[in-house]
Specification:
The complex is a heterotrimer of chains A (441), B (294) and C (278). Chain A is α/β, with parallel strands linked by helices and 441 residues long. Chain A has helices spanning 2-26, 46-50, 64-67, 72-84, 95-108, 122-127, 170-175, 185-197, 214-225, 243-258, 270-278, 333-345, 353-361, 380-391, 404-419, 425-438, and strands at residues 57-62, 87-92, 114-117, 148-150, 153-163, 166-169, 201-204, 282-286, 300-303, 316-326, 365-366, 393-395. In chain A, the strands form two sheets. In chain A, strands 1, 2, 3, 4, 5, 10, 11 and 12 form an eight-stranded mixed beta sheet that branches. A four-stranded mixed beta sheet of chain A has the order 7-8-6-9. In chain A, a hairpin with a 2-residue loop joins strand 4 and strand 5 (153-163). Chain B has 294 residues and is mainly alpha-helical. The longest helix of chain B is centred in the first third of the chain and has 33 residues, at 63-95. The chains are: A alpha/beta (441), B mainly alpha (294), C mainly alpha (278).
Chain lengths: 441, 294, 278
Amino acid sequence: MKISRFVKLGITTVLSCALLTGLVGCGNNSTPKAESSGGDTKEVSSEAETKKAGGVTIKFQQWWGGELPEGYLQKICDEYEAATGNKVELLTAPWADTKTAITAGATNGTIADVLSIDGAWLSEFVDMGILTDLSTVDVKLDLASDVWKVDNKEYVVPILNFAYPMYVNMDILEKSGVEKIPTTWTELEQACEKIKAAGYSALALNLGTTNANGIQNVFMGTGWASGIALKDKDGKYLTKDNSELASLAEMYKKLYDLGVLYPGMSTLEEAEMTSNFAAGNCAFTIASAATMSQFEKLNFKAATIPVKDDYKEQSGICYASWAVGISESCENKEAAAEFINFLLGGKDGKDGSASAGLASTMSAFPNSKVATPDYSSAPTQFQEYYEEYKKNYVINEFIGLANASDVMTSMTNDLVMYLEGEMDVNKMLENWQNYLDNAGK
Amino acid sequence: MNILAGKKSAPYRYLLPTITLMIVFMVVPIFMVVTYSFADKAVISKNPSFVGLENYYKLFKDSNYWKSVYNTIIFVAVSVIAHMVIGMLFAILLNSKYFSVRTKTIARVIYILPWVFTASVVAILWKLMLQPSGIINYILSLFPHVNRDTEWLSDRAIALPVICFINIWCGYTFYMISILAGLQGISEDLYESAAIDGANDIKRFFSITIPQLKPILISIAMLDFIWTLQSFNVIWMLTGGGPVNTTQTLSIYIYKLAFQKVDYSMASTSATILLIVCIIVAIFYVRQQKKVRS
Amino acid sequence: MVGSHTGIKKIIATVLLVIGAVFASFPILWMICSSLKDNSEIFSWPPKFIDATFSFKSYIAVITDSTKVRFFVNSYIVSICVVVATLLIGILAAYAFSRFDFPGKGVLNSIIISVQAIPPIVLLIPYMGLIVTMKLFNTYLALILTYLIMTLPYCILMMTGYFNTLSRELDEAVMIDGGSRWKALWYILVPIAVPSMVSVGMYTFMQAWNEYLFALALTQTTEMRTVPIGINLLMGQHAYDWSQMMAMSVLGSIPVLILFVFFQKYFIAGMSSGGVKG
């Protein structure tokens, strides 16, 4: 009984709402809906915002806000406002869809002023003319150790770099009788076999294609550690008949054939891989330093990736970045440049505290030359790894590659075929050469 | 037939809001998509050049496209048929005389569950359950002689069937509810007279239930066909089209073209082909509807 | 003989009912369990339904976060407006399709069905251009209009079917009494059609609630974002917050479930006739 009365009441309410809306809409049938729910409209017109007393407002499109502790990024923006009088409005989108949001915004004139860019998107955005050449505005590029270029024009400057160490679950190592963290490929293979014999999964290789970055972070990450590269000395992609790359692929093939790779690799995504490591499901994983705080319950170490047996030189460390550029249609490029300068070197170009603070919060390395992050509160594993990091160098050959996500997906698919024994290594490397050569054409 | 229809414009007045909205917000953008398909570098470049049917030739030459078409046909056919069979089975169960009203009420709420949760989370949930150390493999490992190492999503041989299964789970409720409702509309007399004629359950199902439900079944199957053709979220979140493109349907193929390759011309081309297919289906549907009425 | 025969059938039916219930509810059960675990426990082996980290902290984290609450509020505003608008406009159109024969009817019908065919990802860019030109970017109205257009075809199809099952004598009686068609529709047909409006309304609500891509592109500021965006914000660059994602999904579903429990009698009956009989 009660229910039916509730239902009646509900229906009456809904109906009267409907009729009311209908009546309002009645007067102007030709433009239905334009007025009827007008009460909810909240227009964000640029005029209203930019004309604030003294300063301007710049919009900052990024995904960092979701990763940092709540309010952290806002605090930096507030400091910037206090120092310069300009406001920063944070536009946060999920990382995986920031590219979609920027592309859609660029084609329709709703793009933000300062954009956070992933290395895999760089080339498309330059092609579409979305990004400003930073040397034409007043960005103090000399504050940055690294600037991303396309055709020798400087478009994007990283703020933070995330290194990709190899995480090691020390408990699994101990239970499997592996005494030390492997440092060469042979040691890695032997360790993996022992770990497998003890009933654990050894190494995770994420070759999922929702976001195909395992080929970069794990596979090439391993290669770069041993100085194996996709490009030749002249900076041209050379994978065909590249015997070094072939040896890297063969090493992974061996691991695959030994059955020591974490199962389900061809749909494994980075986030699942790290969560699996955090749950103690595998012994080694190569993942971003930013994820280190997830592992606090584990007895783990962060190490450099094992190198080819006779390799004695410096290791290349794969990295991802939080990097920023200025949109071409930005109306306040000076303010935008000033904001980037503030992120790099404070108001006076000497204060690296914003950059340093971000770095220590995210277990990352600042790209700013004046930042001296205080890692004393960071995990000890990170502090140890920092020493290793300083001895080596960072590298990522996919940054700036045209259609990088598409090329990486194709490369990943071939790698899966090769590992599963349905393609031979030369054919794979030849295909890779084609993808890389034809990228963006 | 329209006793008081003095003005011929009457139906159009009722349709005015719909027509206006459809033209402004659907027909115009769709028209633009179709024009993109005849251009090179649409959207990206300020002055895209007209290339005629070249994009279509290029698309038809792409073996990946045909593979996606093949995957889509399997995905859609399996999903639509299984949705219907399972939806029908569940509807008949929920309509059966064997259970009390209370049982049926509770069962209805349970059976509707797959439908009320956010689609992207549902996809992630299945991925969690099907991952190597997930609950499904754990439950299997409790049975003797069952392999707990099945890689549900990353085994190329079974990835597409698994994706179909998950899509079936996501979509059967729509059929179930519609059919359940349709069953309520079938007169008991029909069944009783059939029972007197000595027809058994199965015979009655095929001679009464199915013909009575036919109009409903055709409508929902058509809607489901179009929706499944579009189905993106579940596949993208679960496999991203992998392993090695084995679960790449047209919607994934188009997404990759548009947002990985940033090639809107080609994405629009394959979308236009989808549009043509759906227009054909719609025409058949409208014809069939007319036949039913007359 | 006959008795035992029915007995066997009842057993079979019961077994099937239980299997079906497990099939439908097990993943949801797992979702709820996951939302009550610690994020790091979600992947642990062997998986447990409830473990030592059991707590409601994911839910508390969502409820006490004012941004996330705002996502829910936005989603409700948008979804409810969409339901009302879709029903209103859909009923008008359905009435025309059901009660009149007019030139262009078949063509219009085909158009309404086939506009659903274009993948949203392709439509996004030209559609967004339209919204920006109309100065609707980053407003509720942009989302409401979008979802209205997405759900309208379904609504029209279903409501046409429903009106077709209602006798024309109903409206004719009103018109003989001197009433208008308009009156016949709103005072006679619509009250009878409430059950099917409920069913169409709930479906529309779920569509609007779930939509992600257009919500992402057509809104920009945090105050305008909806729940699906909030959920995807938990999918970070390197790591996901699995438990909170599950918690947000569960929280979002509760109102819909409550509605279904209250409306289910109508829901079932509604679809029946709404099930498009020609």
